[in-house]
Specification:
Elements: E1 2-4, E2 18-23, E3 26-32, H1 43-60, H2 66-81, E4 91-98, E5 102-108, E6 113-116, E7 120-123, H3 136-141, H4 148-162, E8 185-190, E9 196-200, H5 202-209, H6 216-226, H7 228-240, E10 257-263
Antiparallel strand pairs: 1-10, 2-3, 3-4, 4-5, 5-8, 6-7, 6-9, 9-10
Helix pairs in contact: 1-2, 5-7, 6-7
Length: 264
């Protein structure tokens, strides 16, 4: 695995809000959502707590369904902190679990899982990508750059997006609604058919989905030959070539990055 921090909304470095937990027969990857509200804990703090809850449940009850485990973890974090729907930090979720017979995956929001059998099968939750994002992308395409006006446009976009969180016709994410776990995108495969799995936060998957730097087979080849960090560095190099977000409009010049490679 490899991780690298991005920037905060103020353009300054800060610790990554992505979290990766490696267990004997599972990997958890979470991407804490950048908080627009100073009155709430950060997305990274939420992701850390949710990851700990998930890891404990996967360890003590590995036979339970992944959605049940995730729902219990979301409920525990919400109750322990007094979070209520719409008044809580949030995080994406990607879980890969395996045993002697099967490999299974659950994805909630935009942290995809890619299984190679040997051709790639992408488990992705596209609902967040289909939610209207506001005008900040148009500003960036027009050369507006990462200014105070960009931050205002980004906050306005976030308010619109948040209104569609965890409801039909919108998108689903780990927050304070345990039922969101049952809206995750699921897949499973015979273990003998899977050669490798990649798990990525959107700070890495954007290299495939948005920038077109490479496909998933090339990402796997690079991660296998040079290590997962080489994939992160390729994405970061592309972003450095577009410092104002005009070619690839995105909320921040650099997002947090996390990539896990599992080989069978």
């Amino acid at each position: 695995m490899a991780e690298a921090p991005g920037l905060g909304l103020d353009g300054l470095p800060r610790p990554s809000e992505d979290v990766v937990v490696v267990l004997p027969e599972a990997v958890i990857l979470l991407d804490g959502a950048t908080s627009m509200r100073p009155d709430l804990p950060s997305g990274g703090a939420y992701a850390n707590e949710l990851a700990a809850q998930l890891a404990g449940r996967l360890t003590t009850a590995p036979e339970l369904d992944l959605a049940d485990l995730l729902a219990g973890a979301i409920r525990s974090v919400a109750r322990g902190n007094g979070f209520t729907p719409g008044e809580s930090p949030a995080s994406t979720v990607a879980i890969v679990r395996w045993n002697a017979a099967e490999v299974e995956a659950l994805v909630l929001a935009d942290s995809p899982v890619v299984a190679f059998r040997p051709e790639p099968e992408v488990v992705a939750d596209l609902r967040l990508r289909n939610v209207p994002r506001g005008s900040y992308r148009d500003r960036l395409r027009g050369g507006g750059g990462y200014s105070t006006e960009h931050l205002a446009a980004l906050r306005a976009s976030a308010r619109k997006t948040s209104a569609l969180r965890n409801q039909e016709g919108g998108y689903w994410v780990a927050e304070a609604v345990p039922a969101a776990a049952y809206h995750g995108i699921r897949a499973s495969w015979p273990r003998e058919s899977v050669s490798a799995v990649l798990m990525a936060s959107d700070g890495v998957s954007c290299g495939v989905d948005d920038y077109g730097l490479f496909g998933w087979p090339e990402a796997l080849a690079l991660a296998t030959s040079e290590g997962p960090r080489a994939v992160l560095e390729a994405v970061r190099a592309a972003e450095r070539s577009d410092p104002d977000g005009a070619r690839w409009p995105r909320p921040k010049p650099y997002d947090d990055q996390a990539l896990a490679l599992i080989t069978f």
